[in-house]
RNA sequence: GCCGACGUAGCUCAGCUGGUAGAGCAACGCACUCGUAAUGCGUAGGUCAGGGGUUCGAGUCCCCUCGUCGGCUCCA
């Protein structure tokens, strides 16, 4: 049999017999590679290990070390789960079952509603399938054949319909389950080292709330039990850091059933933290040429009609009627956004090009009637405060303004030690504004990112209808990402409110408007910080920076004096005066994650010093009050 | 809004197939006055989320509402 020649990733070439598969190639290279082989990559496309090679193919062997390996494993796991479901519920029809971050899911329709207890039975069945080391058998058919094969399965029919005419459609068969699937899969089910079904949920077919609701099972899968255990440990770590739990334990905020969903109440310590962050950011904004404004929380409906919210954002707004007397009744709306207020400030005077750019910021509390199912502690609430700003500028100023915003983003994230990435969203199908404006604005965003040497991804067509935007996603201490800052160009509002400025040529022109938040929602950002720091805030953020701990009652008076003198330097200090042993007070302070504990006993009173215990380092010895205050304030 | 689970003391939770509510921590009181992560004893604390229904009897079963949790969706 004649040989064919394939190229390997390192540039070398290998001769294999005609008809050889990826697995044959792996075997020819080495038995250990063949053992580890999961799939192949031919000319950049993932293929099954049984795929027959052609002369000239560039072939890479995919093993569990490859970046694609987990995706492959999880996709195969989804099929195994589907087979288990099909075996237990023969009437099941299936939607889609992709691999996702950390796992997989499959959507399906069966006659009964599953309960969490049913997951165990499915897991058991999956374990059997895995033990049997079943293969995923690929077959190729035409669209017509595929329609026949999946007769009676409306979901697969719909998916098949959407495939391009004439395309070869592949299916994978494994036990009782046959699926429309591009593939590839791992060589056999035995390669799934460890898996666990995580949760049961409802999901609309194709994410569309007007379509049927399917059942969805989420699972996770790994090559080894250890990897699974590590993953479960990470989930537990995230639970320990949950801001809702820590918010209660650290007495930062609460939620009350009677107050209404999504309306958190901030306790003294939580409020203090929000104000610390706010004041820090305010000073930074002043330094960067912003001016603060304060605008109303409610406007007459006319404002919302002008802005378009009345027509387009109504379901998300709180409206109410007021009897003004004399038979006049007015509609008012509580602001879901700050833009109209800032625009009215801009509009209040004739503006000249000399006034631009005009940077107005506000810590603006807004209310949005979010759907009842989406609330999540501080992360998703109905009332929250944006660190909002609107920049009114000329088109050729956009670039520099965006650079300045990115610089601010970088500074702010650096303070908290967040790494971050950027995404640019471009013109969607439905949009307003001229193509030139879109192009100019999008280019300005991109070039600003480039000028700062930042990498970015493009979300094609994902911009708002009124302009392109940059989204910033940051990565917290345990690797989770959060979308915070948004820099958004707005072609809509300048139009709607008909705002203009005088150019150098004494003509009227429409300013560009940039909308941006750096933290996003102050409260949500606090939630992110709680989870990022696991409640153990750096001293500058900590609501209580130090507690003074008397060893015995006779030291109380001196403790009060210590507290008063430290408070005079601006430190936030409490005395733990309860009649408990010192070690109990230390335990409580540690639990409250207070950065410093100042122990005062006979020796300290005598020398007018405190014994400093640092939260993480323990006892660091005696210090004078001035030195202590200085060390904290400088930290 | 939709699907599912859940809601018992301030917190964490127990309470079998219906028989009239319990623990630990916290709180309060008393004793202890203590040297770097939890002293002992005692007291008090619940319209079992709210409303309706079934039943001789409901924390437990059914319905509605509110809220929470996990998803979906939305995010001008």
Structure summarized in a few sentences:
The protein contains 20 helices and 33 strands. With 635 residues, it is an alpha+beta fold. The protein has four domains: 60 residues, Roll (Ubiquitin-like (UB roll)), CATH 3.10.20.30; 169 residues, Threonyl-tRNA Synthetase, Chain A, domain 2; 243 residues, Bira Bifunctional Protein, Domain 2 (BirA Bifunctional Protein, domain 2, 2-Layer Sandwich); 89 residues, Rossmann fold (3-Layer(aba) Sandwich).
Topology:
Layout: E1 3-7, E2 13-17, H1 22-29, H2 31-36, E3 39-42, E4 45-47, E5 59-62, H3 69-88, E6 93-94, E7 99-100, E8 103-109, H4 116-131, E9 137-141, H5 143-149, H6 154-162, E10 169-174, E11 177-180, E12 194-204, E13 213-222, H7 225-240, H8 243-249, E14 253-254, E15 265-266, H9 268-287, E16 291-292, E17 298-300, H10 301-307, H11 309-312, E18 319-325, E19 328-334, H12 339-347, E20 358-367, E21 383-393, H13 398-416, E22 419-425, H14 435-451, E23 456-459, E24 469-475, E25 481-490, H15 492-496, E26 501-502, E27 508-509, E28 512-521, H16 522-533, E29 546-550, H17 556-568, E30 573-575, H18 582-591, E31 596-600, H19 602-607, E32 609-614, E33 618-624, H20 625-634
Parallel strand pairs: 16-20, 22-23, 29-30, 29-31
Antiparallel strand pairs: 1-2, 3-4, 3-5, 6-8, 7-8, 8-13, 9-10, 10-11, 12-13, 14-15, 17-19, 18-19, 20-21, 21-28, 22-24, 24-25, 25-28, 26-27, 31-32, 32-33
Helix pairs in contact: 3-4, 8-16, 13-14
The structure holds one RNA strand of 76 nucleotides.
